[in-house]
């Protein structure tokens, strides 16, 4: 078994750029329209999950959770996305998180395939705004994913498209649901955040600027040797 990986699959929000605050503001605005307070604690529960799953968690936080049809749910989710899309229109290449541009170059120079596996249906638009739309070999279409994170489908979809065995993939995430998805896919998990939150990560840093291809590849090699 090769001790060198073939592909790296990145989450978007909190990994390549930080649009989390835009998500929060958009959900907060929708919540206010529904009479539901979306505070920071509730917002933490929305990270890494799909738009409809996020909406379900917000509605469940209401004093009297409303019972809505699938059509009504889709309407509210689209309304939130309209808020969010207006906010992210201001994103520029300056919003790429520290260290990420250099990391992508290092991984590409090492011959690895690169993909984005995000729950966001806006990923292509955000990547274009960041100037990273040509940096990746594949971007998972979140609209075609049947089961969101922590289900592994997002990551296995990317690996299948790239024709890379799952154990030869590295996933990079900042959310617990995302790290769980990577591990359930049988991949090597790089976590960005706290050890308490990302306990399942195989390799952990506290911030993106601490990521380096050399250290990630060395950690992957040790991991695969033990497999």
From TrEMBL:
Which positions are annotated as binding Mg(2+)?
A: 11, 13, 173-174
**Which residues of this UniProt protein bind substrate?**
11-13, 27, 46-51, 54, 80, 118-122, 149
Task: Name the cofactor(s) required for activity, per the record.
Answer: Mg(2+)
Top enzyme category: isomerase
Keyword Isomerase attached: yes
Q: Where is the active site?
A: 11, 13
Name the UniProt record assigns to this protein: Beta-phosphoglucomutase
């Amino acid at each position: 078994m090769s001790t060198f990986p073939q592909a790296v699959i990145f989450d978007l929000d909190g990994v390549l750029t930080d649009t989390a605050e835009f998500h929060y503001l958009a959900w907060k605005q929708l919540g206010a329209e529904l009479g539901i307070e979306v505070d920071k604690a509730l917002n933490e529960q929305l990270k890494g999950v799909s738009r409809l799953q996020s909406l379900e968690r917000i509605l469940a936080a209401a004093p009297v959770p409303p019972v809505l049809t699938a059509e009504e749910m889709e309407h509210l989710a689209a309304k939130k996305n309209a808020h969010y899309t207006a906010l992210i229109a201001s994103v520029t290449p300056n919003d790429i998180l520290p260290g990420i541009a250099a990391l992508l170059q290092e991984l590409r120079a090492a011959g690895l395939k690169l993909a984005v596996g995000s729950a966001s249906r806006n990923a292509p638009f955000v990547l274009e705004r960041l100037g990273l739309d040509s940096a990746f070999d594949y971007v998972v279409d979140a609209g075609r994913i049947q089961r969101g994170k922590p289900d592994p489908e997002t990551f296995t979809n990317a690996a299948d498209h790239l024709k890379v065995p799952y154990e030869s993939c590295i996933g990079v995430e900042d959310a617990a649901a995302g790290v769980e998805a990577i591990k359930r896919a049988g991949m090597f998990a790089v976590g960005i955040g706290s050890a308490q939150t990302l306990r399942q990560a195989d390799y952990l840093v506290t911030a993106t600027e601490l990521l380096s291809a050399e250290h990630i590849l060395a950690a992957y090699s040790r991991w695969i040797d033990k497999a």
